Amino acid sequence: MAKVKFKLNGRELEAEAGRLVIEAAKDAGVEIPHYCYHPALGNPGNCRMCIVEVAGAPKPQVSCRLPVLEGLDVKSDSPAAKRAQASALELHLVNHPLDCPVCDQSGECGLQDYYMKIGQYQSQVREDKVHKGKRLEIGPHVMLDQERCILCTRCTRFVDDVTKTHELGVFKRGHVERIELTPGMTLDNGYTGNVVDVCPVGALTDRDFRYQVRVWYLDKTDSICPGCSRGCSISVHTNTKRNWHNEGRRVARIKPRYNPDVNGHWICDDGRYSYRPLDAGRLGKVLRLQPAREEISWAEAAVEIADRLREGDPKGLAVVASGLLSNEDWKALKELLPQSPLYFSPEPDQVGEADELLRRREKVPNLKGAEALGLKSGSFEALAKDLESGKVWGLYVIERDLEKVWGAKAKDLLAKAKWSLFQGPFKTPLSEAGSYRLPATAYVEETGHFTNFEGKVQAYHKALEPIGSAKPDHEIFGLIRAALAAEREGAAA
Ligand code: SF4
Ligand code: SF4
Q1: Ligand 2 atom closest to Cα of residue 267
Q2: What is the pLDDT of residue 127?
């Protein structure tokens, strides 16, 4: 596309011909206030906030409808532009309740932010504000406050253009115009949390997050959703400072992180709300379970497990792993047990619904990472037969619930193994049925890489400290490998 020269606030800039002024300004580091414009939802130009002064034009123009042209001279910070923006803001606030102290959007609200930047006037409105619906539960995840809505229509464009499910619309006219559910529908389309993200004010709030924690107490860490093989970019918002309202949960919410190559601006509700059980049913202690249940140190566990691995034929030790392992984990596992057969196929416990937007059938993030290392999974049916026949003497189970794999017969099959250990972040019905139980970190407590279904390698980062003595899986494999090597060196000496 040809480039053109234009001026913004007196600065000479260059942009692709036809790029919108609001976008070209953002590229140059200048944020022009806006509500209705969203890069993925279009530019209806109805909120009038992005108004700018254009040299030679008789009236101010909205910059989300104005393409960059050669020689265009635009001012977003002139007294005339600021006056126009402040007037637009004043109109948005005519009927908006001034309830920032009790509004859950406070601290990340477009109205509040722009009022502080460009508003700060005494209201001229003496009449009562128009009252509309409050605390409307419009779906399992979203609450609507019609009074706070500024009718930017981002939410309706999301359900019309992105999910194409049409649950929301603008109803009535004039000062009683409002966002409502389409008659007979509820907002439940698998992607509903995104309307909360796009709503620039406190009209749409997240039923799980609202009133749990003030946003200024949150820490944010870049991560990758482990909910399926898409590997959406996310930001994990943690609250370890004041978590008395959310029952001690350390992860307060998950938000999408813009990634044009993977998920754009969106994530699905499965991924968004996957943080709820992250602090429940966790394993934090290293346990020897047989002959008696006893807490031991990592060093003791590594030596004892290494002893047992040395005694048995490695080909008779089956490793049942999960697609939740990181690339670092797969590599360390391969180095620890290069000859042992691996079982990590997602069937039948780690698959689910897929759709055309983002969600993938494999509900684990990193089967590709194993594939990239040349690892192959055997079938669980064949493993069941090998356990029945005694061909397999040991089972190393990593982050997998065997009851979900084999159903009711899982306990009997596990009992066929002479020796087994469980390693993972969460309790499962059979996690104490073997010889050892090792606590591993959850993805929010470690740094690593997942390879998504398209082969994109993406980093996720540690947001929280591990629970108890838990360690990342690759560190556990490394400890056992070091113990094996030390025994060999000891025997050689
Ligand atoms: S509810 Fe929010 S996103 Fe929807 S129109 Fe109102 S302000 Fe815009
Ligand atoms: S599509 Fe998959 S990776 Fe993306 S948010 Fe949903 S579960 Fe997570």
Answers
A1: 5
A2: 86
Domain range for residue 31? 3-92
Tokens representing residue 82 in the block = 């600021």
Predicted local confidence at residue 1, as pLDDT: 75
Nearest ligand, CA 155? 1
Look at residue 179 in the predicted model and tell me its pLDDT.
98
The two tokens of residue 487 are 């025994």
Into how many domains does the chain fold?
2
Among 59, 92, 125, give the residue marking a domain's end. 92
Query: Residues of the chain whose pLDDT is less than 70?
Result: 242-246, 487-493
Q: Where a domain ends, among 41, 61, 92? A: 92
Residue 24 sits in a domain whose CATH number is: 3.10.20.740
Provide the Cα torsion 392, 393, 398, 399; round to 10°.
80
Ranges assigned E (strand) in 9-89: 11-16, 51-54, 61-62, 73-75
| Interval between CA 221 and ligand 1 midpoint (Å) | 27
Residue 462 belongs to some domain of the structure: yes
DSSP conformational letter for 426: B
Q: Answer whether 268 contacts ligand 2 (Cβ < 6 A).
A: yes
Among the atoms of ligand 2, which is closest to the Cα of residue 263? Answer: 4
Residue 291 in any domain: the answer is: yes
